[in-house]
Prior knowledge:
Layout: H1 2-6, H2 10-18, H3 24-42, E1 45-48, H4 50-65, E2 77-81, H5 109-116, E3 120-125, E4 137-138, E5 142-143, H6 159-166, E6 172-177, H7 183-189, E7 192-195, E8 214-219, H8 222-232, H9 250-253, E9 263-266, H10 277-292, E10 296-299, H11 308-324, H12 328-331, H13 336-345, H14 350-373, E11 376-380, H15 411-414, E12 419-427, E13 430-437, H16 443-457, H17 464-477, H18 481-484
Parallel strand pairs: 2-3, 2-6, 9-10, 9-11
Antiparallel strand pairs: 1-3, 4-5, 6-8, 7-8, 7-12, 11-13, 12-13
Helix pairs in contact: 3-4, 3-17, 6-7, 8-16, 11-13, 11-14
Amino acid sequence: MADDIAFLPATRLIELYRAKKVSPVEVVTETLHRLERYEGAVNAFVLYDPESALAEARRSEARWQKGQPQGLLDGVPVALKDTLLTRGWPRRVGSKTIDPDQPWTEDSPAVERLRAAGVVFFGKTTTPEFGWKPTTDSPLSGTTRNPWNLERTPGGSSGGSAVALLAGICPLAVGTDAGGSIRIPAAFCGVFGLKPTFGKVAVYPASAFGDVAHIGPMSRTVDDAALMLDAMKGPDSRDWHSLPDDAIAYRERVREGSLRGKRIALSPTLGYAEPALAVRDAVERAAEVFSSLGAVVEQADPFTESPGPIFEALAGVGFAALLRSMPPDKVALMDPGLAESCRRGEAVTLEQYVEAIGRRVALGQAMRQFFDRYDLLLSATMPIPAAYADPRDGSEPNPSNFRDWMPYTYPFNLTKNPSASIACGVAGGLPLGLMVTGPLWDDLGVLRACRAYEEAAGPVWPSAELSAALAKAAGAAGSEVKAKIRPLR
C-alpha cells in the first residue's frame, strides 16, 4: 500500500480523505519515510521538519473526520522550493551568503495561499544559488541527482522539487521559473510543470531577474497542477505585477472542451536550434497524438533567430545588481560560476540594455501575432535528455557548458506566455519533454491540451522502470541520510 499512497495524485488523496479511507497522517508518514529513504542518494532537500508536518497532518485528519476540510488541498503534502519565504523556516536560496539565524516571520504569497488551502509543508527543496542555472548544485547543499540515473542532473533550478515528485515523496511541489526553471527539471525528470502567464501567481520577494520570474505548480498529473494553480493564483499587494483573479476554476474546467479544430503549430527547433534526433522524433510523435485528437497541426516556427542575446543582456543586469548588493566577504562565499556571471553582467552597457528592452518588446509583439494564427505551440522542452550532474571536461552536456544545451525555455519568460512541459518519451532510459505554449492568459488552454495528451498517451505513474531506478537510488543512499538531513528545532 505504501507505493500506492506514494504515487496517488493529490486529486485522489482528497477523494480518499473525504471517504475516510486514507488519513493525512498515513500519507505524511509515508512522505517522511520516502524522503529519508532516498535523500542520501538524491540530495533534494535543504531541510525537513517531521515534527511540525506530523502535527499538521493530525490537525488535518481531525478536520476531515468532522467533514470540515480547511481548503482545496487539506492534508496534501507539498514540497517548497527554497527560494520562497516560509514562516518559521530559513530561506537560504542555495547560498552561504544568507544567515539562517534570523526571524523568518513571513510567507511568500504562494506559500500563504497554499497554507490557507490546508497543505502540509514538510520541507524545502534544493536550488542552485539564487536559482541562477539549469542544474541543481550549490555551495550550500551540494549536488542534487536525478533518480532515473544518479550520474545525471534533474535540471534546475527547481531540481529538488522535481526529484521530490519523481521519488514519490509528495504529489505536489512549488517551482519558480525565470528562464526555464520549472520546465527544464520537468523535462529531465519526466514530471509535469507549468510556468503560468506572468503575474498569474504573485511573486514576492522580487527576483533578481525581474519580470521574467514566474512561480508555478509541479506535479505528476495535469489535474493535480490545475488543482494546485487554483490554490496559488490571485493578486497580492506585495507584487505590483500580479494579475486580478481570473475567476476560473481550473480543477473543474481542465477536463472540458476538445482539441478538435484547434490550430496547433509544431516547431521542434523553434526556428533556431536543432534538438537531438530522439527528441525531435518524440516531439513529432506527440504532435501526431494531437492530430489524432482532431487538432489541425502544421509546421510553423515562431522565431527566425535565437532570442538568447536579449535574455543574456537583461539577465546580466540582474546578475550585476546581485553582485553589487553583496559585500566582498560574501562574494567570496558565492558559487564561482555565479560570481563570474555577475561580473559578466557588469559589462552590459546602458545602450545594450535599452536595445535589449526594445528587442524584447518586438519579440512580445511577434509572439502575440503568432498566436493570432495558432491556439497552441508544440516544441521540445530540452534538446537533450538529462545532462550529467557533475562538471566534465568534454563536450557532453554538463554544468560547465549549460549555455549550450538550454535554448528553448527562456523565450517564453521574455514574452510572459503560459508554457508547460509534459513527458513525451524516453531515450537511453531518460525521459524527454514536450513543451506546450499558449497565448497570454490562456493557461486553461495549455492545461486542457496537456491533459488531453496525457489521457491519450496513457498512464505514466508508477512504472516498473522507475521502481527499478528508485530501488537502485535507495541502495546508493546508504546511511548518509542521517548526516545530511536535520529536523528544525
